[in-house]
Amino acid sequence: MLHVSNLTKKINNQTLVDDLSFSIGRGRVLGILGPNGAGKTTTMRMILGLVSKKNGSITINNKSLDTEFERALMGVGAIIEAPKFYPHLSGIQNLKYFNSLDTNSDNNRITEVLELLGLLKDGRKKVKYYSLGMKQKLGIALATLNQPSLLILDEPFNGLDPHSLRVVRRYLKGLASKGTSILISSHIISEIELICDDIMVMNKGKLVGDFKVNELSFTASYVLVSIVVDDLSWAASVISSQFNLVCCIEKESVQIKTNETSIPNILKELLNEGINVYEAIQKRSSVEEKFMEITGGGVIA
């Protein structure tokens, strides 16, 4: 489906992508993880012909990007960075307009795709009134309207609330089950873990590791814990001071990484401080553990 071989990109004396090779089979979902500046977006741009390459080859559906550029990209859908739309047109009008620029366009699928993505009731609303998450789903709708054989998505989960994340995840997995190959980059590692079959890790332009998600064992040395409380700031202060842990406040919960045996003591201390604890959810992240092992603790961005 997609074959990338010895791909290299240089600007002046800086190497952005360095001798990168990988493949995606039909109906597979490949995730790219890597620290900020690893070369993930640049790689996607080269596959789409948006930026030039110094060396290497890119083949899509057995067609070379060098010799059959238009035919190679004919069955490709993509979102690179934030999707752009005409704000004074409705979602449906935007889809019809951009779709009309494609000679193989099919407006008959607009209603179906919007419904699958949970946007149908807002389809006639002007895009200037859309939230960031709604615009993101509209971009995914446009990229998949003509049932691409290859879908390339750069940070597609930005701005999505938990419900929309589930909707988009289900939609993309449905596309893959029907044969669409997907290349996806995201800093939301939990979504990458849930949606991808395979993961490759980039660092400083190089491929530094790859693995299949279903082959990972859940033997992480720590667990991720989300604690829902009535006083987020005070809870974070107690956990930080009493247990020397880094806390991250997200919406209605305090997020921490700790060993499993510490969880009861942390919850007991919060209750002793008069903090109401409504829920505590722990989740091992085998993909994050593997990423940390490969990169030596690089930050996913």
Give an overview in words.
The protein is α/β, with parallel strands linked by helices and 301 residues long. It has 2 domains: 2-217, P-loop containing nucleotide triphosphate hydrolases (Rossmann fold, 3-Layer(aba) Sandwich), CATH 3.40.50; 223-284, Alpha-Beta Plaits (2-Layer Sandwich). 33% of the residues lie in helices and 28% in strands. The chain has 10 helices and 14 strands. A 6-stranded mixed beta sheet has the order 6-7-8-3-9-10, sandwiched between helices. β9 and β10 form a beta hairpin. The radius of gyration is 21 Å and the shape is globular. The chain starts with a strand and ends in a 6-residue tail after the last helix. The model has no long low-confidence stretch (mean pLDDT 89).
Helix and strand arrangement:
Layout lengths: L1 E10 L2 E11 L4 E5 L6 H8 L7 E6 L2 E2 L4 H5 L2 E4 L11 H10 L9 H7 L15 H13 L5 E5 L7 H16 L3 E5 L3 H7 L2 E6 L2 E7 L10 E7 L2 H12 L4 E3 L2 E6 L4 H10 L4 E7 L2 H10 L6
Parallel strand pairs: 3-8, 3-9, 6-7, 7-8
Antiparallel strand pairs: 1-2, 1-4, 4-5, 9-10, 11-13, 11-14, 12-13
Note the main attributes of this structure.
301 residues, alpha/beta, Alpha-Beta Plaits, 2 domains, six-stranded mixed β-sheet, four-stranded antiparallel β-sheet, 28% strand, globular
Would you identify the CATH architecture of the largest domain? Answer: 3-Layer(aba) Sandwich
Helix content: 25-40%
Count the DSSP helices: 10
**Termini, distance in Å?**
27 Å
Assess the beta-strand content as a share of residues.
25-35%
Reading the helices and strands in chain order gives: EEEHEEHEHHHEHEHEEEHEEHEH
Order of strands, widest sheet: 6-7-8-3-9-10
* Helix/strand/pairing category: alpha/beta
CATH class of the largest domain: Alpha Beta
Structurally, the number of domains stands at 2
Whole-number radius of gyration?
Answer: 21 Å
Q: Average pLDDT value?
A: 89
Poorly predicted regions: none
CATH-defined fold name of the largest domain: Rossmann fold
Globally, the shape reads globular
Q: State the major sheet.
A: 6 strands, mixed
- Total E-strand runs: 14
* CATH-level-4 superfamily name of the largest domain: P-loop containing nucleotide triphosphate hydrolases
